[in-house]
Predict the structure.
Amino acid sequence: MKVLFATSEMAPWVKTGGLGDVAGALPAALRALDHDVRVLVPAYPALSKSFPDAEEIARPRWLNGLLPSPGLKQATAPDGTPLLLVDYPHYYGRPGNPYLGPEGRDWLDNHLRFGLLSRVAAWLGSTSSTVDWQPDIVHCHDWQTGLAAAYLHYLPGGQAKSLFTVHNLAFQGLFDHASLFELGLPDAAWNIDGVEYYGYLSFLKAGLQHADAITTVSPTYAREIQTDEEGMGMAGLLRHRAQDLSGILNGIDTREWNPATDRHLRQTYSSRRLEHKAANKAALQQELGLEQRDDLPLLGVVSRLTEQKGLDLLLEVAPQLLKLPAQLVVLGSGSHELEHAWKALAHKHKAQCAVVIGFDEALAHRIEAGADIFLMPSRFEPCGLNQLYSLRYGTPPVVRATGGLADTVIDATDARRGNGFVFGPATAEALLQAVHRATLAWRDPVLWRKLQRRGMARDSSWQDAAGHYAELYQKLLS
Ligand code: ADP
Ligand code: GLC
């Protein structure tokens, strides 16, 4: 099958979160099953620089709307995945975060930037395309490419089937009415059964409404988003489309995230050589200026600093966690308020708590390896990848029972299958209690080794998920 994977992020070039990881690994897993998957992504500076010889293969033009005519370039990723780069420097030639300007605010032309990406995706799946490769399926991801499904629906010549994967329902791509015209969508699309959402144009709704099928990144999240409590205003529509909606649990890039070969670590280790993990803890303590203590559990966090991730909840109980006693390492960036508050906490407890604000891939690996316990108290979590990394790194996670966390982490009270610690309510008490249980278990070396080994043995590769996506593609075409 020929599949166009349309995405606004792709690791290792452009990544703000899990979407980048997924787009960097799932296409190769599908290609391993013999599907012809190509990735459509904007030619951000990191990609233009990595593929200076990318060859222009087309220059799509539009008859309506105000979107410009971009170049479409072709390159091949090191793993063999063909890339189609949407080249329009005025939109994509901006360094840094793909969505935010230097002040941390959304670029004001994001509707055009991601509208163009969506439009090129739909064009490739339509009879207007001049490219000699035509996808059977256009697979869109999150609001940034949700509009592709609407273009395929409303504009003439659409022939590919569309699949829309929701990685996070909280980001909805809302823009004002005028953008309908700029984007070249017909008036007919301005409709409750179209792209209109309470007076705004919603890219997310466009995908949910018009894609032939919808997936999200875990079975539990697929159920949760159909409830009014967790449906972020889209529950009605999602219930209406329940027949076409399913959850496929993410995998991880097991080559990139493997403690036995990880080039970022002080010392590599495996489930048979778990004693080597300790060197990574000592190195991390040293790197971040923490007291060198092997008798205290080291708690690790790598996260966007947002309410979704429960980092405000964690902040509330952090002083008590340090008193357990324990050490705490946080790597993250996000809301300025939370960044400041976390920095202030670290300042007060220098020997026990280190906070690094920023995005640092290598340090993320060192925290997964160096921490004893990983914390993910998310209020909601479509899938979550960090708990999967931490399981694989022998760093049992403490998670809230939500979304993909509930589908991957089994509480230690399950004596045969437990691999971490799970708590229910999103409250400071419940979180504190779960971390307390984890630190007690950490002090029992026999129990702890069992938990670590079970987590490390979990198969989190992309193979299963790729099989499920392939089945769904097949179903869409039959
Ligand atoms: P989300 O996509 O909601 O942020 P995920 O757990 O799915 O959450 O994926 C987050 C990804 O981004 C992981 O690969 C994680 O290691 C990475 N990440 C998040 N914050 C940082 C950071 N500050 N530095 C380095 N990597 C980070
Ligand atoms: C989103 C979600 C996260 C998920 C990731 C990849 O960013 O917040 O839970 O793992 O997408 O699907």
Observations:
- The first strand starts at residue 2 and ends at 6.
